Amino acid sequence: MKTKLNIITLALLSSCSFGLFAQGYGLSNAKTDNVKFDAWQCKGCAVETGTTGYVDAGIAYNSEDDIKSANAFNSSNQVAGKVDADIRYKGKEGYQANVEAHNLGMDNGRLDIDVGKQSVYNINVNYRSFAHYQSNSALSPYQNIGSDYLTLPDNWVTAGSSPDMPMLYRSLNPVELSLTRDRAGLGFEYQTESLFTTYVNFQREEKTGTKTTSGSFYNQSMMLAEPVDYTTDILNAGIKLRGDNWFTSVNYTGSVFKNDNNQLGFDSAFNPTFGAQTTGYIALDPDNEAHTVSLLGQYNMAMTNLSGRLLIGQMTQDQTLTTIGYGYPLPANSIDAKVDITGATLKAVTRLNRAWRVNGSYDYNDRDNKTQIEQWTQISINDVTGEAAYNTPYDLTTHRAKLSSDYRITHGIKLDGGYDFKREERSYQDRETTDEDTLWVKVNVNSFDMWNMWLKGSVSQRDGSQYQATETASSEQNALLRRYYLADRDRSQLEARFSHTPLTDLTVDFGARYALDDYSETDIGLTKSTDTYYDINLHYMVNADLSLNAFYNHQIIESEQSGSSSFSVANWQADIEDTIDYVGAGMSYSNLMDSRLKLGLDYAYSDSDSTTQVRQGVTGDYGDYFAKVHNINLYGQYQATDNMSIRVDYKMEKYLDNDDANDLNPDTIWNVVSFGNVDHDYTAHMIMLSMRYSL
Amino acid sequence: MKTTNQINTLLFTLLCLTASALFLSNQVHAAKWDATMTPAEVEATLDKKFAEGKYSPKGADSCLMCHKKSEKVMDLFKGVHGAIDSSKSPMAGLQCEACHGPLGTHNRGGKEPMITFGPDSTLAPDKQNSVCMSCHNDDKRMTWESSHHANADVACASCHSVHAAHDPVLSKQTEMDVCTSCHTKQKADMNKRTSHPMKWNQMTCSDCHNAHGSLSDADLVQPTVNETCYSCHAEKRGPKLWEHAPVTENCVNCHNPHGSVNDAMLKTRAPQLCQQCHSGDGHTSSAYLGNTDMGSTVNGNAFTGGRSCLNCHSQVHGSNHPSGKLLQR
């Protein structure tokens, strides 16, 4: 290979010595005066041109009717096909093309095609699909599901309560609650030999399906299937410039969101109440746009690295307001909403010496909502009939400052510590300013042959300006209420991790974490929360072919809150306990049957559980609220010929969840027409047979 | 109960294994020179070699005289770092020695240290990384030095493999395995009742976080938490006529994006979550007891049953209806 005089060589030959890497082995510091590049022929560099890779085609059978299983199995169809591919073409002079596909044809698949010349240009075409399945057993009397107006059958007879609706059970039909996204993108990047790179990427995503919402009249409510038909276009473009010790870029991101449905109309299933309304309309998420321009920069000095970002952006929304069934004059046909975003960030790292490093940063972010404040009359769906209300466009300004330092005491012992400050300034809220101060310290110890460990502790305190619970937005709230995201809070955390390698091929990791949030000044609201977590993981390479692993994770989050039903001092308490146990094991066995067979088996079980107790003289609970999931993934791959392999995958998901609050018939709650019980209880199996052809 | 016993048994077994392992000793050496040199001596030698710049007479060909039998070594040429037609590849410059440092006298028996990479290398990670960062200085890695991973002494090669046709961590199918091998709590999170679809690799850590650091909190790829969420949930962006203050301020006020034992990744279920901020002179301040001996049931009324508060206030993410102040329209 003839050596080129290129930027790397130039960097090597440069007499400049830059960088934070002065103490490292950065190329710009390499002493290459005596290198005779003409003799560096690289005859042994075995780069082959041509096409390599594989194509894989598979077919899967899914035994299960409950559509939720399709989340794990990638398809809601009983029989599904897929194509995987990784095809790489290398031409001469750096021309190349790659095609990568995974699960293409299934509900969650992706495809990436790249064509270009190495280090010069690249054209990318991509496609991705996603699907999320919630339920296919929800029941609804509504017709025209998926449209923007849900009607009840012609012969529907309203009633004052759901059990008295004579047509309810005769009108129920299953509704699928699922969302799919289809994304397609096109990108182009061009680099010059030296400083300059430019790029432009465009992506369009179509999101369709139905999700749960509710329509209500005063105290009556119906669960509804909200249509989702969104289109989001995203454009990214920018220019990057770099030198030996600096980098800068100017970037633009634009995002345009369109919702094909402006509002969702629905018939009332109940007898009319306030305002005698028989149909209702809820506004759906409006079309909107967001545009951001950012300037990034980095500069490396001998011992110091500086990086920063300036950004300005604007989010706008000018959707024509829904007026069907409203009946009052509007101050404007659309709110012409505008939020200006301004951001500035600076980070600095400096090495005082080989062992001691200091980090500092400051971050400013401002959300300035410039939407006009207007008077809006509230309509007769509840007891605020005819009331005038003013919108409250929220502003938020955040300042974050951090200072930290790490000092390597010995090769294997490092001490870290830091101070973080965060100030948030808000409008129209109970507290205009909150300040949070955090101190943390961490010790890393890697000085033992078989042990690595670290211990981290932190304390933080949040307070701020006077809490004005009776002002503006909270005029109707209890004066003792302290909203948890604004309240004074003392937080302490302690975390430790150990990694032990008793044998070359055996690693045992274990760690634990405890966090306490104490809302010391709160009488009503969230008063305390603790989070206890630990895990243990084992990985054992029995030999070059066989590896085993096992793990167990446990977490318990306990929360306490108080309320007052008498609008004075606290007179009820709630205790919530969330628990997760996650345990599993796996093995991988390669090179069986004369190196032709590979086997793998993974098993995992997760148990999510939550209990809620509320006490006010008597104690009540919220019953079962759990999800228990077993997953097995077993596969065998057999290399039949040099080019052909066969793989069989077996997947099993045993899924059981429950929520006593939703253990319902459609008319269990007198003033709600619900979807009924949407719990899941299934054991689903999937078998996939695939064949891979290697090029 | 049975499951709990099974878990306890497994835990006990793991602990026994750990305890027994304490009594076993088998010192790990990453490279030939680590048997006779301390890490400090290795580093001093490498510093000296780098300063002297005694590169090989024939570049890669000198190295391959001994190392060409290694499949892993030769796999370099399947990836971009082994490309010979790219002006930005190491092979267009100092070749093997661009990364592994000057040969010096290493070719005389292989006892003199070379720069080695990965978690088993005794060379300090920042020294290893200085090699990588001297080329990979761009918008995705410009804050590496102040990133969480750099501070935690993670070597580039702990996650990345350059002697390979494919770097596993760059594949969406294997990325989660790499990240969760250290971030075990997040692995448990994504297996809770609800989470983003990371369990099946449909979403991956890098969709939201930049492992090389960023100028944002938690090394997010977007400037703020909400802008990270809006990049996939643009419908939540608004700005809407009636904003819900904590929603506008920060999505993670109510949600845990890594997963939750509650539906919709909520930190707490309704009505308790709502009652942590709403205690008015009316229905928001009542104690909703759920199932009691007095005859009430959790699924028997609209305050706790079904969608709880959301039965009526379904527009919790804000409303653009003229009459949407109470987030019902």
Give your account of this protein's structure.
The complex is a heterodimer of chains A (695) and B (329). Chain A starts with 6 loop residues before the first helix and ends with a strand. Chain A has a 26-stranded antiparallel beta barrel. Chain A has a three-stranded mixed beta sheet with strand order 6-11-12, with no helix packed on it. In chain A, strands 17-18 form a two-stranded antiparallel sheet. In chain A, β4 and β5 form a beta hairpin. Mean pLDDT of chain A is 93; it is low at 1-22. Chain A has four helices and 33 strands. Chain A is mainly beta and 695 residues long. Chain B has 329 residues and is mainly α. Chain B has helices spanning 2-22, 39-52, 60-67, 71-74, 96-100, 125-133, 148-151, 156-159, 172-180, 184-189, 225-230, 245-249, 272-275. The longest helix of chain B has 21 residues, at 2-22. The radius of gyration of chain B is 28 Å and the shape is elongated. Residues 9-29 of chain B have low confidence and may be disordered. Chains A and B meet through α1, β8, β9, β10 and β12 of A and α1, α2, α3, α6 and α10 of B. Chain A: Keywords: Signal. Chain A: Pfam families: MtrB_PioB (PF11854). Chain A: Residues 1-22 form the signal peptide.
Structural class computed from helices and strand pairing of chain B:
mainly alpha
State the share of residues found in helices of chain A, binned by percent: under 10%
Radius of gyration of chain B: 28 Å
Could you state the oligomeric state of the chains shown? heterodimer
Assign the CATH architecture of the domain at 394-622 in chain A: Beta Barrel
According to CATH, what is the class of the domain at 394-622 in chain A?
A: Mainly Beta
Keywords (chain A): Signal
Protein name (chain A): Membrane protein
InterPro entries (chain A): Decahaem-assoc_OM_MtrB/PioB
Pfam families (chain A): MtrB_PioB
